[in-house]
Amino acid sequence: MALIVQKYGGSSVADAASIKRVAKRVAEAKRAGNDVVVVVSAMGDTTDELIDLATQVTPLPPQREMDILLTAGERISMSLLAMAIHNLGVDAKSFTGQQAGVITDETYGKARIIDVTPSRITDTLAEGSVAIVAGFQGVNPSTNDVTTLGRGGSDTTAVALAAALKADVCEIYTDVDGVFTADPRIVPSARKLDRLGYDEMLEMAASGAKVLMLRCVEYARRYGVPVHVRSSFSTHTGTLVTDQPSEGEEVEQPIIAGVAHDRSEAKVTVVGVPDVPGKAARIFEVVAGSGVNIDMIVQNVSVAATGLTDISFTLPATDGAAATTALTEHQPDIGFRSLQYDDTIGKLSLVGAGMKSHPGVSARLFAALSDAGINIEMISTSEIRISVVTRADSLDDAVRAVHTAFELDATEDEAVVYGGTGR
Ligand code: ADP
Ligand code: ASP
Ligand code: MG
Q: Could you tell me the distance, in angstroms and rounded to a whole number, from the CA of residue 170 to the centre of ligand 1?
């Protein structure tokens, strides 16, 4: 008998029929003799629809109310799933994040889990029932207010519960068969990866592969939770994210794990910055002071005649207004000429632990993009990742060109996307 945590994403519980299908899977796992804890996301695109609704009643929804609103999505799916499981003759009880003991800090909208005290879940398992937990939410103990964990946060709820309960495995059920060498919605010839280390999965998630939330991977690595990403629409084995080597694994790692893409960033260019010490520091102090995290930075060579330079950086597009407002306020003391804002960019990242020890990876990436006629606007690298910024409308072509150039295309079947709207 094992303790299994299963998480079902929004597309797996999009309507009543899907909830009944998931209920069957859960009941089967329970009847096979396992203790089962299920984490659910909101049905389909409910979270996006609730955000749309909020912005229809006010341009700037208060964050506390926003979190209360969004946690409602997961409460609907958790109770419906518990009812559907009951209907199959298996006892099931649903719990909000707060009831399940998911304790967070106070940051509405992107709260961090600081503790998990799942006594009600262990009691429920001891009674022989299935425990269903609303994903993506917790409680701030100092105010008793509910918080949300950031988009895709149900993945993190699942891994945090798996760690706290010392589960044997955490299964993340979604609308594709696992983690692929690229998003199957863009690259139908993408290949499913059987195994992936935490570091590579972290870079993929940080670079936009939303199949797993970044925080969930950080959590899984810290607590050594093996994560099995698989489809709720098929019975295929998915991708195991773990640092445990499999039996008979090749010693040499493949150079490249995959290609990730991200459409959610924007680029700010600070034009005409005096090229003297301290100006870059001031610019990024001001941006940090507005609570914005930046990603890539490029500083141009200054023009000798004017002694002025341009500095560009990327940031989440949702933080664009905060950063540009703060910079504009400080324009007189920093002394730059103007600001340009561009949210029609895309970011492509090539990820692979093997690239550390392999020369020529960047050259091959740039050649693939140039052969496809795609211009590179910015570049950044880490030990196991190379990222480039392109125009947003050439991003899909860029991903396909790079995927092919690194010989990642599958030779057999096309990747299946079973559901979801890709929103
Ligand atoms: P869920 O609602 O189940 O949480 P998500 O939409 O958050 O599902 O994540 C699954 C989606 O992630 C897939 O439908 C796919 O489009 C996208 N995705 C992006 N990159 C990858 C990748 N490398 N492998 C698999 N899926 C990916
Ligand atoms: N429902 C939340 C979202 O859409 C959390 C999740 O799906 O993981 O972001
Ligand atoms: Mg998700």
A: 17
- Stated pTM of the model: 0.94
Q: What is the pLDDT of residue 37?
A: 98
**pLDDT tens-place string over residues 284-318:** 999 999 989 999 999 988 888 889 999 999 999 99
> Rounded distance, CA 169 to CA 239, Å?
12
CA of 98 from ligand 3 middle (Å) equals 21
Low pLDDT (below 50) residues in the chain: none
**Nearest atom in ligand 2 to 151's CA:** 9
User: Which is the closest atom of ligand 1 to the Cα of 173?
Assistant: 3
User: In terms of CATH, what superfamily is 3-175?
Assistant: Acetylglutamate kinase-like (3.40.1160.10)
Sequential DSSP letters for 321-388:
HHHHHHHHHTHHHH---EEEEE--EEEEEEE-GGGGG-TTHHHHHHHHHHHTT----EEEEETTEEEE
Place of tokens 């701030």: 140
Q: State the amino acid at position 303 in one-letter form.
A: V
Domain ranges of the chain: 3-175
Those residues whose C-beta lies under 8 Å from the C-beta of residue 341, and which sit 6 or more positions away, are 266, 267, 268, 320, 324
Residue 133's pLDDT is 98
Q: If 0-12 CB within 10 Å is exposed, 13-18 middle and 19+ buried, where does residue 110 land?
A: middle
Q: Tell me how far the alpha carbon of residue 92 lies from the centroid of ligand 1, in angstroms.
A: 28
- The amino acid occupying position 79 is S
Q: Whose CA is nearest to atom 6 of ligand 2?
A: 152
Type and span of the H or E element at 38: strand 35-40
Residue with structure tokens 């106070």?
A: 106
The pLDDT value given to residue 415: 85
- As to burial, measured by CB atoms within 10 angstroms (0-12 exposed, 13-18 middle, 19+ buried), residue 290 is middle
296 Cα to the center of ligand 2, angstroms = 26
Q: In sequence order, which residues have a C-beta less than 8 Å from that of residue 348 and are 6 or more positions away?
A: 259, 260, 261, 387, 388, 390, 395, 398, 399, 402
Residue type for position 414: E
Ligand sitting nearest the alpha carbon of 420? 1
Alpha carbons 290 and 324: distance in angstroms, whole number? 9
Q: For a substitution probing ligand 1, which of 11, 41, 176 has the most ligand atoms within 8 Å of its CB?
A: 176
